[in-house]
Specification:
Strand order of the largest sheet: 4-3-7-5-8-6
Order of helices and strands: HEEEHHEHEEHEHHEHHH
Number of helices: 10
Oligomer: single chain
Structural class: alpha/beta
Length: 258
Amino acid sequence: MDKAAYLKRKQDLQNNILKFKREEFCFKCHRIQSHCLCPLIHPFETSIHFVLLMHPMEAKKEKMGTGRISLACLKNSELIIGIDFTEDPVVNKLLNDPANHCMVLYPGERAINISTDDVEPLKNLNGKRLVVFLIDGTWPCAKKMMKLSKNIHSLPRVSFTATHQSLFAIKEQPAEYCLSTLESIHFFLSELERRGMESLEHKHDNMLDVFKSMVDFQIKCASDPTLPSYRNAKGGYSDKSERKKSKKYNSNRIVFKG
């Protein structure tokens, strides 16, 4: 090999190294720095303490899913990972604390509907802190977690009547009334503010800003044929209106009634 060829090969190798240089990674939101969500997140206080009960599969699969974005936005929140929380010491400590009034945000016939029911009992808790548990996982996983966790499914339930369908365009929800964890918390807070139980001055709308940015990025990746995440099996990303809706789901199958 002559000197000119050697130098050209050396230059080509250097160009490839620069081309495939590893990008800086954010270990907080688990994204490369160019797509980091952290600058968009503006944490805010709530009077309610939120406890996210996350399924291990969700915790492992979704490094920065809607549950973790919610935690990053809510200063007054905590995360507990598991499936059956009946004997969980952290959960039971919260439940047994006389200073707490614990409920679970989950649909049910006897649930207090924050959108339409009388909320005066929740306004007058004799100085107790309102603690709201949420289950973060797929609907089938959430049903199993509710069924196994006797201490959680025995709690009084609180729910709401959603006025819009999920904005999670990349993901198909099992029913029109199903929202993601983040959307559920956001709408729940909106209803609490409307009913005079929170004073947030729309600070919680930041949750949707972060969520929409995440969804837009997911759609971009799913629509780009040069990326491994391209949905080429279905001809690329398809709009929700173009998808066939599953008919196998109904409220009896996806919600734990006990």
